[in-house]
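Researcher: Let's run the pair from yesterday's discussion. Sequence first, then tokens, for each.
Model: Starting with the first of the pair.
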Amino acid sequence: MTAFRYQAVQGSGAGVAGVVEAEDRRSALRLLAERGLFPSSLEPCSGTPKPTGTAESTAAAPSQPDSRFRIGSGIRGREITAFSREMSALLDAAIPIPQALEGIAAEESNPALKALVETIARDVRTGASFSAALARHPRHFGSLYASMVRVGEEAGVLPRVMNDLADLLEHDDEVRGEVVAAIAYPLFVLGFGMVTVAVLLTVVLPRLFSMLEEMLETLPLPTLVLLRVSGFLSHQWPWILAGLAAGGFGFRWFLKSPGGALEWDRTKLRVPVLGGLIRAAALSRFARTLGILVKSGVSLLPALKIVEATVGNRVVAGQIARVAEETRGGDSLAAPLRKLAIFPRSAVQMIAAGEESGQLADMLGKVAQIEERHLRARTKTLVSLLAPVLILLVGGVVGFMVIAILLPIFRLSHGIR
């Protein structure tokens, strides 16, 4: 246990000072909140003994990772999710926003996130609202995040809204992790095969073929083809790498242009199997995010505008913008969705039933679950097809190389006989 010296304000407005013992700063803030105290300062007492060699200190050590062993100094999405969950718990314990932010910052091991949270806490201390302070960092807290927090502040339900946000972010992390885990093996097979073939063509085969050319007047056709490819790669690899780098920069510039980004998103939707995956992911995010916003008290039109910027595909975002325009004219949500054929008919019927019964948020959540189920099923189908195809492709290339190497060796053995 650590002793913390605090200065706080009671509910009556009177000032009070004292010492509280807790495992860490966050626990101390929670204890003070339970006593009805609102701390203005909380510092560890000097000379506080720290336990050494005990089972408690050994068990607690892993929860405080040393930032020196951290790779990179950026802020990951999962860390924003953890921040949201911690803020939800602290606000639910009636801890004021500045103290909650300072408690999280004091325990944070990532220097970048620590500095970000401290900046937000400082902005709140100087009079900015929590949502406005978050909106100043759109790279980490997008329009969806800031808008939901603002609604929570205005409605006086910020702890519940933060809990909904944490649920949404955790769900996104879970779905993203499942997709990444599903495609990891095919990508590993493809990458390993490409590296193996590149090493053979540029390092091993040129030396072997130089020996074979000296020993044989004519080489078999597969060997000649492989020899030409190997010679080209081994001599031109700097230009090939430069061309790939230039192509990568050009493609990145193309994606940054509005027209190029829109065309790329449209092309992705046209790809067989993959297009269905992208559409299912965008629609599930649309339904889940819109459901959370409606549940939090955001009216339908502003909620659609927020969701438009979060679906991750400009073509689908354009369709949602048309839905918002139709809704502005007085239509229900289901009518433009049915007209534009964005969702399957069964999903639109569920949304219509939710509007009629006043349970739109719940129905949108169920639609999101259905689309996510489709996403998982299509991902499994894609992976089950992709892995064997990549193995056959890599095996075919390696097999051709083996045949091209063995044919001249067999011819040499015939000549020796």
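Model: Moving on to the second of the pair.
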Amino acid sequence: MTVRPAAVAGQFYPAEPARLRALVTGLLAEVAPEPTPAAGYVVPHAGYVYSGSTAAHAYAALALDPPERILLLGPTHRVYVAGMALSGAEGFETPLGVVTADRELVMAVSASSAMSVRPDVHAEEHSLEVQLPFLQVVAPYVPVVPVAVGDVDAQAVGDIIEAALALPGTGVLVSTDLSHYHPYADAAALDADTIERITALDRTIPHNRACGASPLNGALVAAQRHGWTPELLFACSSGDTAGTRDRVVGYAAFRLRNGHG
């Protein structure tokens, strides 16, 4: 099995397995989710001390009704890619073990002309990796296919999601933070407007409002197609958790509520 090793353990989350599991379990224990049918979730991807409490709102909900497989979409921060990229790995390592890829799902999304296989894009990318320990705790046997979303239009991302949904039991997970490096009050206003746009299914969220705008807008395209309702679960900024208030990063967790569920 080809395995993509952890790149940000010890930076974005603890590298020691017991500490990591205890942190994730503790964050989840602070949340009391409602059991609601969901096609997927939107989660942040900063260090756990900053955004883990926000992510926990989505993962605690996912734990109540785990999908059979997960399409994980996140932006690229380090390596440019035109279109979208798979890692080529069959497993993804964290201190909690190895998450396996779903072969059927890999085949389904590989059919897109916008998809490539780029291990270099995935090698140091944190937006996808930081989701895995949460998934290992709440859905430990569910396979995951991480896709790095680069320079691509929302319709192409929506088509990838469509291909994934053709496999019954597939859930969608979108990794994005909100605004970056504004003063606390300014960020709160910007993020409130962005949240309103997301819940209104505005699939033209700009990159300066959400670093994962490309996968997010693609998920909103899919939401329009399928009648999903983005439902805000929680939002805050680094100024509320572990950072100063002069330059904050915004975070939000959403449920993609499935009205047909």
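Researcher: Give me one sentence on the second I can quote.
Model: Residues 48-64 form the longest helix (17 residues).
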